[in-house]
Write a structure and sequence with these properties.
The chain has nine helices and four strands. By secondary structure, the protein is an alpha+beta fold. Strands 1-2-3-4 form a four-stranded antiparallel beta sheet. It is flat, with a radius of gyration of 28 Å. The termini are far apart. About 0% of the residues have low confidence.
Length: about 280
């Protein structure tokens, strides 16, 4: 009996061995191509693309998770809406299958499957977008471009909090820390919204120029709506990030910034001393 069972298992074992051999062959071919690309062409793109796609989201999550604040009311609404949708879906399926029983476990399984398909479609869209972005921009410059994007986004987030403060007090605060004191931004979020410089330096506070200003100052005369509320303490990729009083975030090379705001040299003499 044991011999017959052993004989019957031989095709399955042979099939498994074939699959393992194919997998090992694909791995060897991949390593050879990787070695060929790195050694012969001196390019690490074959390493960087899979690496960034596989673990890039981890670093993004770790760098932004402290700035996230859970809105319990909205979360409860979302969970409640999901439960109502699942219940309605279950009753609909029961109505469709009038003559046959329908279990809750089947409804939950189908709902989970649809949610996973939805998440997968969004993820695939993001992956295709990132691949296209990396194809247009050399990977050696991607980190600096990402820093510029992060700082522009941070400046926008600070502007929204400044707007709330101005609505309540009639003018912008004397310093950005007032946003934390007023509870408009948490201390952890403000730390994340600080300026992110190049070369993995520690974050730095923005240069704030909005003390005593208000939106009325941005409409008194022509051009005043371009008054800079905050400026980056140093350039990124040779450009200074500037948040204007009208909410626009722009980036200027040093010479363009000095021509745009010539009074900055007198207001902040040490900032441009070595530029």
């Amino acid at each position: 009996m044991s011999e017959e069972a052993s004989t019957a298992n031989q095709p399955a074992k042979k099939k498994a061995a074939t699959q393992v051999s194919r997998l090992a062959g694909c791995l060897v071919i991949g390593l050879v191509l990787l070695f060929f690309g790195v050694v012969v062409f001196g390019s690490t793109i074959l390493v960087e693309i899979p690496y960034h796609l596989a673990v890039g989201w981890v670093f993004f999550l770790l760098s932004n998770v402290r700035a996230l604040e859970l809105n319990w009311e909205m979360a409860a609404c979302g969970v409640g809406a999901l439960l109502l949708a699942v219940f309605g879906f279950h009753r609909f399926l029961i109505w469709v299958r009038k003559d046959k029983p329908w279990k809750w476990s089947w409804t939950v399984s189908m709902t989970a499957m649809m949610l996973m398909l939805f998440a997968a479609s969004i993820s695939m869209t993001g992956i295709i977008h990132q691949l296209g972005w990396m194809a247009r921009e050399p990977l050696t410059q991607s980190s600096n471009r990402a820093l510029l994007t992060v700082n522009v986004s941070n400046a926008k987030q600070i502007f929204y909090s400044l707007v709330e403060y101005e609505d309540e007090h009639g003018q912008f605060p004397d310093h950005l820390q007032a946003l934390v004191i007023e509870g408009l931004v948490s201390a952890g979020a403000m730390e994340e919204l600080s300026f992110h410089p190049e070369r993995e330096r520690a974050t730095e506070p923005w240069i704030y120029l909005g003390e005593g200003k208000s939106f009325f100052d941005g409409s008194e005369k022509e051009g005043s709506n371009e008054y800079p509320l905050i400026i980056s303490p140093r350039p990124v990729r040779g450009k200074w990030v500037v948040l204007r009083i009208d909410g626009a975030v722009t980036s200027y090379p040093t010479q363009s910034l000095m021509r745009k705001y010539p009074w900055l040299a007198e207001r902040l003499p040490n900032l441009f001393a070595d530029r």
